[in-house]
Design brief:
The chain is an alpha/beta fold. It has 14 helices and eleven strands. The strands form two sheets. The chain has an eight-stranded parallel beta barrel, surrounded by five helices. A two-stranded antiparallel ribbon has the order 4-5. Strand 10, helix 13 and strand 11 form a beta-alpha-beta unit. The model has no long low-confidence stretch (mean pLDDT 95).
Length: 271
């Protein structure tokens, strides 16, 4: 009998830990069926690099939502860039957070004429014409990027969501900017991400940190959506869901059919 009670308590604790925010589903309805171009509508031939103004203009021309990533520079500017270091995109093995914007703006993206944009310039370009899905990068412990992002978004009139793999970002926004809709990013992190401690990857993979961040939506890798915690969030708690990154027509069709939002890549080349 004791063992049964113990198992019930463990299960109740598990459900409490993975429970998302249950009270803002209506606020997410405006984003239903939104298709977000992953890092803008960039091209595989590198003529239109990811997270560039050219990629964002291409998405705008097609009326597509835009997914992008933000970092905070050494001098406190928010730039749009995915990786923690500049090596892949700019050939320089340095962290974004260790560079000033003046230093960054001189670096071409993948040898093109495009440069790393400021978020404020992207916001000015988009000007509310399409929804934005902003992934907050936190390669270090400082949460200064959250404060800077809140300040920058305060005057923006368009529709946007924020998301992050790091639950501390969601927790910060929950406490300091609760009106901003927030999403927990996740995937099979035990298999794919070796850069963080195993226990942290385990907790985020199974959405065991939802009790801290209380996400309004779950943003999960499509190939990993058989995860039990994701399924409970989707079907029991009825949390809105986004799936990524869809690179085939089959994946896009599946995402459209089963989920509220989709994040796709290179639709004009691969479909």
């Amino acid at each position: 009998m004791f063992f049964i009670i113990f198992l019930i308590c463990i299960f109740v604790l598990y459900l409490w830990m993975i429970t998302p925010n249950l009270f803002r589903r209506a606020a997410l309805k405006k984003f239903n069926h939104t298709e977000f171009a992953h890092r803008g509508l960039h091209s595989g031939d590198f003529h239109v690099p990811e997270n560039s103004m050219a990629a964002f203009r291409a998405a705008l021309l097609r009326g597509l939502g835009i997914e992008l990533d933000v970092h905070l520079t050494k001098d406190g500017r928010i730039v749009v860039f995915h990786d923690d270091t500049l090596k892949r995109m700019c050939g320089l093995d340095k962290y974004i957070e260790d560079m000033t914007y003046t230093e960054l703006v001189s670096l071409p993206l993948l040898g093109s004429s495009e440069r790393i944009p400021l978020l404020e310039d992207v916001l000015s370009l988009v000007d509310g014409r399409v929804p934005l899905l902003i992934e907050v990068k936190l390669p270090r412990k400082s949460l200064a990027v959250c404060r800077a992002l809140q300040k920058e978004l305060a005057s923006y009139k368009g529709e946007y969501l924020i998301q992050s793999f790091n639950t501390l970002v969601l927790y910060w926004f929950r406490k300091n900017a609760p009106d901003i809709l927030r999403g927990q990013l996740s995937a099979n992190l035990i298999r794919e991400d070796k850069s963080n401690p195993y226990i942290l990857r385990l907790f985020v993979q199974f959405l065991l940190t939802n009790f801290l961040g209380k996400p309004d939506f779950i943003s999960y890798s499509l190939k990993d959506t058989s995860n039990i915690s994701f399924l409970i969030n989707r079907h029991i708690f009825r949390a809105p869901t986004a799936v990524w990154t869809l690179t085939t027509k089959k994946a896009l069709d599946k995402g459209r059919k089963l989920h509220n939002m989709v994040i796709f890549e290179r639709i004009h080349e691969n479909y």
